[in-house]
Design goal:
The complex is a heterotrimer of chains A (about 425), B (about 250) and C (about 350). Chain A has about 425 residues and is mainly alpha-helical. Chain A is about 65% helix and about 5% strand. Chain A contains 17 helices and 6 strands. In chain A, a hairpin with a 2-residue loop joins strand 4 and strand 5 (about 215-220). Chain A starts with a helix and ends with a helix. Chain B is of the alpha/beta class and about 250 residues long. In chain B, strand 4 (about 55-60) and strand 5 (about 65) form a beta hairpin. Chain C has one domain (about 1-60, about 100-330): Orthogonal Bundle (ABC transporter involved in vitamin B12 uptake, BtuC). Chain C has helices at about 1-30, 40-55, 80-85, 90-95, 100-120, 130-155, 170-175, 185-210, 210-220, 225-230, 235-255, 265-280, 285-300, 305-310, 315-330, and strands at about 60-70, 75-80, 170, 185. In chain C, a hairpin with a 5-residue loop joins strand 1 (about 60-70) and strand 2 (about 75-80). In chain C, helix 1 crosses helix 12 (about 265-280). Chain C is globular, with a radius of gyration of 22 Å. The chains are: A mainly alpha (about 425), B alpha/beta (about 250), C mainly alpha (about 350). The interface between A and B is large, with 41 and 46 residues.
Chain lengths: ~425, ~250, ~350
């Protein structure tokens, strides 16, 4: 895993000498540019993700609807936080979904007991997830390597099992937790019987959407999405600061050589614990935002597959890179939602231009990989990334850029030769 | 009273008595070598000094304070730095970052949660690290990956990192083991230069007699876990017991 | 007393499955140094070998039976398995009845071939890669394998009964001199345990008493030296991977009558098996077996009604709880060696 970090960090530090100045918000020029890019992408996402006109055959691939966009940014936060632990320190937690789940439960209880305003709920999510992460981290970090992974997995599976069974009064067990009109909510006015409780930000309903029409195109601007996106931007900004801070450097040192760190007068444990708690709070924030968007929680959010998913996102994007986890989260959520929706009929319309026999063959060949079979595609993709691109999408991108530059350079030398001939 | 006092230290691993009744006093400002044949307990002794092992009996004190029961990073913060047999550096980090870490450790202690400030804009640390790199003649390697350097350069960096902490005692564990002749001589020159320019005490464990006699002011010979003699290099050279226990054996090679 | 014996017995069958999977995992880890997250999938593939084999046995052709008529008065069409044509109806039907035990013969070559193919095709390229990469690529493989099975066999569990002779239970308590009805134990579970014990003993004997096993054990202890001796350890490790795959596969074959196989059974067992391996100590074969049975039995005890009354839900978390306690008190598991998997 060491290669990923090394691919990106030194490049950044080169430009980050004290003289290099540049940039704004306390970031170097390069980091500030990256941040601006992420701001632009998240703010324009409703347009960028809906490139195909409504009712066209390609509208299947549009991802610009609120529910999915919210997932992009929320799981982006989750993966950014996970990357602070795994990408920097190399400690592979297999139980991070527990913090997301605990955050969700804390969030929904804040909405039940206090107010439907999302701010106290999100703060409660982060706080409770942070406390839980402190406890789990304190115990798990006494071991390293696979022992650490299994300890975190054990804690997460225990949380899941308990939420599913014994803790039903607080978690809702199998049915999960929803908001009710009769919840106490001491800070809000009582709701009418039968009225649906809706999360809001100072009265602004999370579900509010505005549709913009441009010819055949429809773009949906959703309040919930922009709030979640705003949170992700803050989360992303803070992660850049952490990466470039003395603390971040120490975390990379933990990954690189704990022995030397010990003999340099630095105790690795508080550093890893702090990283663990910070990433737990990121997970809590993600959990709180999930609740703010759909006002419900289920225990399956804590199952080990959910923990595995965030590992996949981070590695697919590029562990130890700044932007990688965000890309990975977007990529996997896009696949999950779009590829799984393609059915046999859609395939037939796509390949209708082929002769009948061939059409059936092509459809039959593609069908196992889409719709319900999207996990198969995911698994194959996953293997392909680990085998061919151990540094994830970011490394892939860098390789492409490298190829492109070399080609350009070749062109230049070629063109400079031409006049001479 | 030396800067480092080892009294009656013993350490047993199962049936093997690795150290028994070791007494050693390292005088401040000297270069003190500990030599001995393989299995004499040199590394065990070193590990007892830095907190990696805890001796079964006896005491180890540094500047009058006991180091026993303290963790390696605490002992390091007391003023003891250690150079390893194979260079231990942060291979994934740049040379500059490698040098900055001990500077941060010196200033901010064993832990500090500075998670917001820009490392590279911390002028105090950056200047200090740059200065140390210049001292080590490594300024041109600033942005290199530490892991991609030659073994000699890694050793030089490691020593520089230790010095950046301004330790009062520098422990070296066979610093030239596995090195080519040229690299060995470079390391000897570097250590001589350090000795001449800095107020530091150096304790060195070494196998290579050339290194030992070029540097050491006092030598302790360890055999079978216990000190045989302690004397100046000249006296050690001619000492019959040492010839028998050590030099005799090694001259055969 | 009866209750205690009953719970120990109840723990044995699940413990056997844990132990067999953990044994294979440890063999692979110990010999190749690879953390194989696809091992659960091998267990699942073994179970589906049994399903496939019994489907094959039941392949039929239709014949028209003139002696009988359906409700319209036409001659009755009957599906006759080909196996009846070959061995006659009596032998044929008992072969079908014995499909699960017989599929062991089918599963061994299939699983060894799969294991060797996996090692040659994929795992081999990951020896030098970090453990995290190994975990991820085998995890991806596990997803692919289980999705393939899902595609061909569907998502629902497929009932695969034990032979008629072993259906039902027997009163184990009476044999030991307790009152009748105290300890009733299904035949097949006892067979599963005995089978597991046989396989485990076989693997240990193989490693202990054959030259091949000796070389592999030496390789586990110190790979480089063995390579220096001029022994082609890689080839032996490939075979070892095949054997580990076969062990997992056989565990799966024989487990089918206890739980009808479904495509995600491998993952369900994998997570627990990893906990078992780690509790036993990475790289320790006896540790894996010991921890497998231990955790199986502890889980059975935690599922007792009397225990659940006091500590509701404890059966769900007991294994993880034990794992946490063991790892905190014994850093390298029950029988682990120093320095394994700690980087």
């Amino acid at each position: 895993m060491t290669d990923q970090t090394t691919d990106t960090i030194p490049a950044a530090t080169t430009s980050a000498s004290p003289k290099a100045g540049g940039g704004l918000l306390g970031l170097t020029k390069k980091d500030f540019g990256l941040f601006l890019l992420v701001i632009a992408l998240t703010m324009l996402a409703p347009f960028l993700l809906n490139p195909f006109p409504e009712n066209s055959a390609m509208a299947q691939f549009n991802a610009g609807y609120p529910d999915l966009m919210q997932r992009f940014v929320i799981f982006g936060i989750f993966a950014i936080g996970f990357n602070i632990l795994f990408g920097l320190t190399g400690y592979l937690s297999f139980g991070h979904a527990a913090f997301l789940g605990v955050g969700s439960y804390a969030g929904i209880w804040a909405m039940k007991l206090l107010t439907l305003n999302v701010i106290p709920s999100i703060l409660a999510s982060m706080l409770v997830a942070g406390l839980f992460a402190t406890l789990v981290g304190f115990i798990s970090l006494r071991r390293s390597g696979i022992y650490f992974s299994i300890l975190t997995l054990a804690f997460a599976m225990m949380s899941f099992a308990l939420a599913y069974s014994v803790l039903t009064p607080i978690t809702g067990g199998e049915t999960g937790m929803q908001l009710q009109y009769f919840d106490p909510r001491i800070l809000d006015a009582a709701l009418e019987p039968g009225q649906t409780p809706r999360a809001n930000l100072f009265g602004l309903d999370m579900a509010t959407s505005t549709n913009l029409y441009f010819g055949n195109w429809v773009f949906t601007l959703n309040v919930g999405y922009y709030i979640a996106a705003f949170c992700m931007l803050i989360a992303f900004y803070l992660s850049i600061r952490i990466f470039r801070s003395p603390f971040g450097m120490m975390l990379r040192a933990v990954k690189s050589n704990q022995n030397r760190l010990n003999y340099t007068g630095i105790s690795p444990k508080p550093y890893t614990l702090a990283a663990f708690v910070i990433s737990g709070m990121y997970a809590g924030l993600a959990g709180g935002l999930l609740v703010a968007m759909d006002t419900q929680v289920g225990a399956e959010r804590m199952f080990w597959t959910a923990s595995g998913e965030v590992v996949l996102m981070t590695i697919l994007g590029g562990a130890g890179t700044l932007i990688g986890p965000v890309l990975g989260a977007g990529f996997i959520k896009y696949f999950e939602n779009i590829v799984s929706k393609i059915n046999e009929a859609t395939l037939h319309t796509w390949f209708a231009f082929l002769p009948d026999g061939l059409e059936d063959v092509v459809v039959a060949m593609i069908y196992p990989f889409v719709g319900k079979g999207w996990h198969l595609t995911l698994g194959l993709l996953f293997m392909a990334v680990v085998i061919f691109l151990p540094g994830g999408l970011v490394q892939g991108g860098q390789k492409l850029v490298g190829l492109f530059r070399r080609k350009k350079a070749d062109d230049k030398t070629a063109s400079s030769h031409t006049p001479a001939e | 009273m030396g800067i480092l006092e080892v009294k009656n230290v013993g350490k047993r691993f199962g049936g093997l008595q690795a150290l028994s009744d070791v007494n050693l006093s390292v005088a401040e400002g000297t270069v003190h070598a500990i030599i001995g044949p393989n299995g004499a307990g040199k590394s065990t002794l070193l590990n007892c000094l830095v907190g990696k092992l805890i001796p079964d009996t006896g005491s180890v004190s540094f500047e009058g304070q006991s180091v026993l029961g303290r963790k390696p990073h605490e002992i390091n913060q007391m003023g003891i730095s250690r150079v390893f047999q194979t260079p231990e550096i942060f291979g994934d980090l740049t040379v500059m970052e490698n040098m900055m870490i001990p500077c941060v450790a010196k200033r901010d202690g064993a832990f500090s949660l500075k998670a917001y400030g820009q490392m590279m804009r911390d002028t105090e640390i950056v200047e200090r690290a740059e200065h140390m790199l210049e001292d080590m003649n490594m300024a041109d390697k600033r942005e290199m990956h530490a892991a991609s350097m030659s073994r000699g350069d890694k050793r030089r960096l490691e020593i520089g990192m230790c010095l950046a902490q301004e330790p009062r005692l520098l422990l070296l564990d066979e610093p030239t083991a596995g090195m080519a002749r040229a690299d060995t001589n470079n390391t000897i020159d570097l250590l001589k230069q350090i000795k001449d320019t800095r107020p530091i005490t150096i304790a060195i464990i070494e196998h290579d007699m050339h290194v030992v006699f070029s540097l050491a002011e006092r030598i302790t010979v360890l055999a079978q876990g216990t000190p045989l003699v302690e004397d100046t290099p000249d006296n050690i050279k001619g000492h019959p017991k040492v010839r028998e226990a050590y030099l005799g054996e090694s001259s055969g090679h | 007393m009866e209750a205690i014996i009953l719970q120990v017995l109840n723990g044995l069958d699940k413990g056997s499955a844990y132990a067999l999977i953990a044994l294979g995992l440890t063999l692979i880890f110990g010999t190749l140094g690879v953390v194989n997250f696809a091992h659960g999938a091998l267990f699942m593939l073994g179970a589906f070998c049994a399903v496939t084999f019994s489907n094959l046995l039941q392949l039929s052709h239709t014949v028209i039976d003139e002696t009988r008529t359906d409700f319209l008065g036409n001659p009755l069409k009957v599906d006759v398995p080909y196996i009846y044509d070959i061995f006659g109806e009596a032998v044929g039907s008992s072969i079908i009845d014995w499909a699960v035990p017989l599929s062991i013969l089918f599963a061994i070559p299939v699983m060894i071939a799969l294991g060797v193919a996996m090692e040659r095709g994929l795992i081999r390229h990951f020896y030098k890669r970090p453990h995290a990469d190994q975990i991820l690529v085998t995890f991806g493989l596990a997803i692919v394998l289980q999705e393939i099975i899902k595609y061909f066999y569907g998502a629902n569990p497929i009932p695969t009964p034990a032979p008629e002779a072993f259906v039902g239970s027997f009163d184990f308590g009476v044999m030991l001199g307790f009152d009748p009805g105290g300890i009733v134990y299904p035949y097949w579970r006892l067979i599963y345990f005995l089978f597991a014990a046989f396989i485990i003993a076989g693997v240990f004997a193989f490693l202990q008493f054959t030259t091949f096993g000796m070389v592999v054990r030496a390789g586990m202890a110190d790979r480089e030296t063995v390579t220096l001796l001029g022994i082609d350890i890689d080839k032996r490790f490939t075979i070892m991977f095949g054997i580990a795959a076969a062990v997992a596969g056989l565990a799966g074959v024989m487990y089918t009558p206890i739980n009808s196989p479904n495509y995600h059974m491998g993952m369900d067992f994998l997570v627990l098996s990893f906990v078992v391996v780690v509790v036993g100590g990475m790289g320790s074969l006896p540790g894996a077996v010991l921890a497998g049975f231990l955790l199986g039995i502890i889980e059975a005890f935690a599922s007792m009604a009397q225990v659940l009354d006091i500590l509701p839900g404890i059966n769900q978390i007991i294994i993880y709880l034990v794992a946490i306690v063991v790892l905190l008190t014994r850093p390298r598991g029950l029988m682990g060696r120093k320095g394994v998997m700690e980087d």
